Amino acid sequence: MNVPGSESHYAVYAHNKDLIKGWEWLCRYLPSAARKSYDILRTAPQTTIPRRYYMLKHKNFQGKWCHEVGAGERIYFGIYEDQRKVVVYYAGRHPNQVPMPPDPEFSVTELPSPHSSKE
After folding, report:
1. Does residue 96 form part of some domain?
2. In a domain, 62, yes or no
3. Rounded CA separation 49/99 (Å)
4. Residue 83 domain-assigned?
5. Mind listing the pLDDT tens digit for each residue in 65-101?
6. Do 9 and 2 touch, CB atoms closer than 8 A?
7. Containing domain of residue 55, as a range?
8. Which residues contact 59 (CB under 8 A, 6 or more apart)?
9. What is the Cα–Cα distance from 77 to 94, expressed in whole angstroms?
């Protein structure tokens, strides 16, 4: 849930509607971990925790981040500081390869808050 009028929070979006299926799966499978990641994405997306929350290093992934949500689940996202916006472009099981970030000209939809999902 994005809080209107809250300059200290980031708006959290999904890159596309298909991504929401992976996000909802994480919310059902790992509800407390999904809530923790969502809260960090909203309040401090550049938080680093070694081997858990980190910036991707390859030149193709500049400005992109990864959250290890569980032992084998990941969230990949970009931070758009000038717009106070986070765009999640992958949520789900650990992929075989790091997913390529979307084209900067993308459509987004609001990511549902895990706080409203049932455990």
Report:
1. yes
2. yes
3. 21
4. yes
5. 999 998 889 999 999 888 899 999 999 888 888 888 8
6. yes
7. 12-112
8. none
9. 14
